[in-house]
């Protein structure tokens, strides 16, 4: 059966519904009001909440959103008591593995974190949470439920320390990962055929001295800027950054701009907004030309030239590699105290993005990713780390909570 799904207000329902197609709504509270609005729009047929919001997702730099289980259960009871149908969103929390997270954009760009636990009835790793038990009690008042106990939490790996003792800096070896596209001006990631990941833009600056690097088109979404391999600053779409004061050490210095696609906007008029460098770049009014544009999807790390690490804490983008032993695979959570921002892979499986900005502090590692014996952890650290190790824990940490 086809149906439409819109927020429970007259404007959204009028704009989103179609003649002859069942209209449903999305809401997490104000049940009576929402059902009344849906009935006013559609005078006959079943009432349905197609997204009953029992939690919420998180953005980098914000809190971890949770909803009181008793509050959510009371609204579920109101829905079922009204004779309405309901789809619980989310019943099972999930994970934005790899580069699959999205973003929002109202007044500023806000990328979603890797976890989509959503404070759901079943957690990100599938364990029953407080809402599972509360919802089971509510549903039992309205319909039969299985006469069997709730599922037990899944097994977890014992806490493990992983030493990352091999390393490969990104900037000197970018050519091993991607052939450059040569252009007068930098081209967007879309024009490089790159839907996710990173792009490294490289050119030279003819003049030396203090001046202003200008990116009038902005960046999509986060750019790290380097001169002769030394970091000189960061530009972020969410702050609307377009300029950076720098000191160019010599005529002909190499300018590298590493741009990260932090996730596509998935709601509103900015869906499909371009990524990468979004226009010409100038230094003190002189447009810089002759760019090598390296697309970095990071879907194959076999060419990364790892070598024993003399130091793991140098403040440059670098890949780090370590191994750890597993007897029996089980779910675990990757904790990275001392690390700043980057990506993580276990046995070649891309877990997703980490960032000490929070709120998320651990990444979910599903049991099927692991194997008995030796396992491999790879991190791409974009800034620096104060430690040369990572931790596998038996407890997730999604950050300080904000209850609604």
Keywords:
404 residues, mainly beta, 32 strands, 39% strand
Short description:
The chain has 404 residues and is mostly beta strands.
Describe what this molecule looks like in 3D.
By secondary structure, the chain is mainly beta. The model has no long low-confidence stretch (mean pLDDT 96). It has 5 helices and 32 strands. Strand 21 (281-283) and strand 22 form a beta hairpin.
Q: What is the residue-averaged pLDDT?
A: 96
Supply Rg: 24 Å
Shape: globular
Give unreliable regions as ranges: none
Distance between the termini: 34 Å
Find the structural class using helix and strand composition: mainly beta
Strand content: 35-45%
Distinct helical segment count:
5
Helicity, as a percent range: 10-25%
Question: What is the oligomer described by this structure?
Answer: single chain
Largest sheet: 9 strands, antiparallel
- Number of DSSP E strands: 32
Question: Topology, pairings included?
Answer:
Layout: E1 3-7, H1 10-16, E2 22-27, H2 31-41, E3 48-53, E4 64-66, H3 69-81, E5 85-89, E6 94-95, E7 102-105, E8 109-111, E9 115-116, H4 130-142, E10 160-169, H5 174-177, E11 181-183, E12 198-205, E13 209-214, E14 219-220, E15 222-227, E16 230-236, E17 243-248, E18 253-260, E19 264-265, E20 276-277, E21 281-283, E22 286-288, E23 291-296, E24 307-308, E25 318-326, E26 332-335, E27 341-346, E28 349-355, E29 362-365, E30 373-381, E31 389-393, E32 401-403
Parallel strand pairs: 1-2, 2-3, 3-5, 4-32, 7-19
Antiparallel strand pairs: 6-9, 7-8, 10-24, 10-25, 10-31, 11-23, 12-18, 12-23, 13-17, 13-21, 14-20, 15-16, 15-18, 21-22, 25-30, 26-29, 26-31, 27-28, 27-30
Helix pairs in contact: 3-4
């Amino acid at each position: 059966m086809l149906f439409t799904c819109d927020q429970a207000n007259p404007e959204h329902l009028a704009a989103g519904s179609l003649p002859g197609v069942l209209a449903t709504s999305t809401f997490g509270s104000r049940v009576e009001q929402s059902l009344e609005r849906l009935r006013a729009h559609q005078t006959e047929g079943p009432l349905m909440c197609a997204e009953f919001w029992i939690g919420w997702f998180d953005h980098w730099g914000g809190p971890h959103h949770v909803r009181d289980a008793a509050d959510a259960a009371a609204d579920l009871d109101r829905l079922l008591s009204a004779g309405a149908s309901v789809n619980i969103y989310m019943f099972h929390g999930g994970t934005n593995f790899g580069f699959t997270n999205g973003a929002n954009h109202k007044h500023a760009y806000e990328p979603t974190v890797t976890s989509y636990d959503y404070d759901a009835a079943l957690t990100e790793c599938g364990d029953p949470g407080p809402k599972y038990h509360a919802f089971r009690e509510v549903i039992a008042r309205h319909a039969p439920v299985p006469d069997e106990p709730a599922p037990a939490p899944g097994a977890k790996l014992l806490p493990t320390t992983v030493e990352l003792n091999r390393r490969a800096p990104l900037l000197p070896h970018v050519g091993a990962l991607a052939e450059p596209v040569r252009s007068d001006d930098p081209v967007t990631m879309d024009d490089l055929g790159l839907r996710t990941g990173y792009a490294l833009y490289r050119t030279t600056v003819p003049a030396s001295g203090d001046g202003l690097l200008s990116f009038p088109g902005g960046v999509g979404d986060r750019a790290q800027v380097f001169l002769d391999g030394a970091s000189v600053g960061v530009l972020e779409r969410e702050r609307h950054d377009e300029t950076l004061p720098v000191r160019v050490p010599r005529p002909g210095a190499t300018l590298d701009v590493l741009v990260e696609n932090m996730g596509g906007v998935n709601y509103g008029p900015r869906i499909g907004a371009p990524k990468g460098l979004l226009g010409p770049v100038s230094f003190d009014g002189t447009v810089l030309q002759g760019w090598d544009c390296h697309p970095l999807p990071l879907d194959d790390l076999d060419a990364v030239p790892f070598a024993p690490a003399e130091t793991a804490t140098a403040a440059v983008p670098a890949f780090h590699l370590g191994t750890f032993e597993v007897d029996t695979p089980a779910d675990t959570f990757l904790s990275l105290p001392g690390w700043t921002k980057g990506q993580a892979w276990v046995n070649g499986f891309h877990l997703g993005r980490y960032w000490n900005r929070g709120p998320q502090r651990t990444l979910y590692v599903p049991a099927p990713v692991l194997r008995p014996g030796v396992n491999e952890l790879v991190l791409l650290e974009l800034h620096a780390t104060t430690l040369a190790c990572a931790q596998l824990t038996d407890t997730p940490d999604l950050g300080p909570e904000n209850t609604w």
